[in-house]
Design a protein that fits this description.
Order of helices and strands: HH
Structural class: mainly alpha
Shape: elongated
Helix content: 55-70%
Length: 62
Amino acid sequence: MMLVQAPGSSALGVLVDAGYGFDLVFRGFAGVIGLVLTVFVVVYLTGWFPPDRRPESLPIDR
């Protein structure tokens, strides 16, 4: 999980050093997460995700 968190703190530091406030940066991050979530929900509801085509001969847990 740290591999996901480390770039976020680096991006936060770069943006704050560039003069943006913490509130603005966190609201921007929240907006991006909300946008990504909205896109995934729309794609799911419209059926654009490919179906699961796992061969029956392969066990689910390897």
